[in-house]
Amino acid sequence: MQKIIIVGATSGIGREMARLYAGAGHLVGATGRRQELLYTLQLEFPNHVITECFDITGPGATAHLESLTRKLGGLDLLVYSAGWGEIMDSLDWAVDKGTVDVNVNGFLEAVHFAWRIFVDQGHGHLVTLSSIASIRGNRHSPAYSAAKAFQSTYFEGLSIKARHMKIPLYLTDVQPGFVDTQMAKGPGRFWVAPPEKAARQILQAINRRRWRVYVTHRWWIIAKIAKWIPSWLYHRIG
User: Fold this and answer.
1) What range does the domain containing 89 cover?
2) Among 21, 39, 80, 144, which one carries the catalytic annotation?
3) What is the pTM of this model?
């Protein structure tokens, strides 16, 4: 039985991952800002879900994570599923700041918390849900693309660091395409996957200790195209 914390488990992919892990008999620590949604998740799996209601960008986030870890009796896997961004025609400081607070500052706090535990105990697994949007800049939400790129690049660096430490400390960067959640915004949506399908594929990647995975799997095609399309063309159509 693994002891798992999912940051951002009130809805969407994070909630479905919590349900899958709890249903498989693991002990899940679910976090989020909406107490009523955490409560319904705990009611569904009373023996396998423990909750802690807090904002990962607020004061005392690490203290909440420490409290949840004590309740779980340890930590084997931390998933950072919290994320936020908005589509904007013009720059909005409040939106950009909120995007960075969740996707960079909150992300860093959770990752540093888990990293210390995993290094001390000599094993662990860190997972982040970045985005296919991390690959290139995006005029509709430049801060979101940049913040998700930070997550992916940071995880690549930590993955290399962990490999050199020669301990079983694994990292998985999940880059979802469109999933049918509140975060699926913007024009021209396609290949929209249900959260349940996305969660199942993510769990498979974690079990296989993949360091990067595209969800659903066919989004690797878009990733390859986005990486190699010439800038002069991308700037015309992006």
Assistant:
1) 3-237
2) 144
3) 0.92
